[in-house]
Amino acid sequence: KKRNAGEPEFIQAVTEVFESLQPVVEKRQDLVDAGVFERIVEPERQIMFRVPWVDDNGKTQVNRGFRIQFNSAIGPYKGGIRLHPSVYLGIIKFLGFEQIFKNSLTTLPMGGGKGGSDFDPKGKSDGEIMRFCQSFMTELCRHIGPDCDVPAGDIGTGGREIGYMFGQYKRMRNEFSGVLTGKGLTYGGSLARTEATGYGLCYFTNEMLKANGKSFDGKTVVISGSGNVAIYATEKATQYGAKVVALSDSNGYIHDPDGIELDVVKQIKEVERKRIKEYVNRTSHKNVTYTEGCSGIWTIKCDIALPCATQNEINGESAQALVNNGCFAVAEGANMPSTPEAIEVYLSNGLLYGPAKAANAGGVATSGLEMSQNSMRYSWTFEEVDAKLHDIMKEIFKQCDTAAKEYGLEGNYMAGANIAGFLKVAEAMKAQGCV
Length: 435
Ligand code: NDP
Prior knowledge:
Layout: H1 8-20, H2 22-27, H3 29-33, H4 36-40, E1 45-54, E2 60-71, E3 77-83, H5 89-105, E4 111-117, H6 126-140, E5 149-152, H7 159-173, H8 193-211, E6 220-223, H9 228-239, E7 243-248, E8 252-255, H10 262-271, H11 279-282, E9 289-292, E10 304-306, H12 316-324, E11 329-331, H13 340-348, E12 352-354, H14 356-359, H15 362-376, H16 382-406, H17 413-431
Parallel strand pairs: 3-4, 3-5, 6-7, 6-10, 10-11, 11-12
Antiparallel strand pairs: 1-2, 2-4, 7-8, 8-9
Helix pairs in contact: 1-5, 5-17, 6-7, 8-9, 8-15, 8-16, 12-13, 15-16, 16-17
Bound molecules: NADPH dihydro-nicotinamide-adenine-dinucleotide phosphate.
């Protein structure tokens, strides 16, 4: 804690994983002796840099850029780039640490990394976004590469930003390679990457429900956020026969008891980049309400909750509200959306709980498939990628379920995910010696 003072999110993420790993410590003295636990919490490398850019008024702006190359035991570093004013070292370290185990669970050879900046994309012109992305990549390009570190999107980094960053990398290095994932389809992107995290979340949730004699069909679902993950989780949950009744952004939430009209949301968020409250003016549904503030969304009665916005968005009180309203499953599209108190409420009330590093791994898994396609210089159809994603999510659920059972924690998929994700990386670290 002293070494990482001032980084509460990182300490929270490590504490959660290490608490789950207690039974592994008892069973695997060889991993303790190999110093795996001490080594795995220290990033292999952390890079911080200045990102200067000129705004539309000709004024110089300066942001701070980060790339944490956390662990390369099982493959090149892989993880997204977050652009949000709340970004600082502790956020990128927590995300990079989580990414190690998530990437391990995907069954693909990817190490853990994460990056970002405290740049706020909201309200910026296309030109400003482009100049920022070019400046960010001018420095980052020295540290990454298709066999070394392959960044992707995250909050604030979508197709547009990846395009600008890719263009600048190619220009600086004179090299067309799969150095970023989430690329446009005309220059090496993979079909189904846009949908992957939201779809994958629902594939995982469906497996978890099935294993417990339940399903999405006819259920009421609340989803937070209205970005990439939330939109495609809404799409797949609806295809599974559920009714999604709420979405949010950082200003407030909409409640549509008749079921969200997703085409309207896509037009507002993906095309016009406007706020979710616009939905009220656009939908043909009559009973829609918009409420300022985010946390109230968890007081809406639902069977299944899929938090898809940001870290620590469900606290103990919100979790209790979900339980009181009869919610029986929570699966995380966002990274670490539940506080430790919220997780305690889920587990002590017997909720089915799908933790982020398993439930939202579909995005990075499909990024892994994008890397494979780039290496082959070939691309698969949407159906091929989607089928592979579906298989991977089934396999992730199986790993969580099996590891939980093996360690006497049946039904605790959080412990199962942490243990299964950890063991693969830990074996590789032990085999490679003290590096
Ligand atoms: P986007 O930027 O596309 O969307 C984020 C959404 O969450 C926006 O609607 C945003 O609203 C909302 N949001 C942000 N902060 C808050 C808040 N404090 N309260 C309520 N809503 C908020 O990001 P993504 O959809 O890509 O990412 C969402 C989450 O999923 C993140 O935790 C990310 O790390 C995780 N994730 C994403 C993956 C991907 O493939 N995209 C893969 C794995 C995990 P606003 O517009 O107001 O900011």
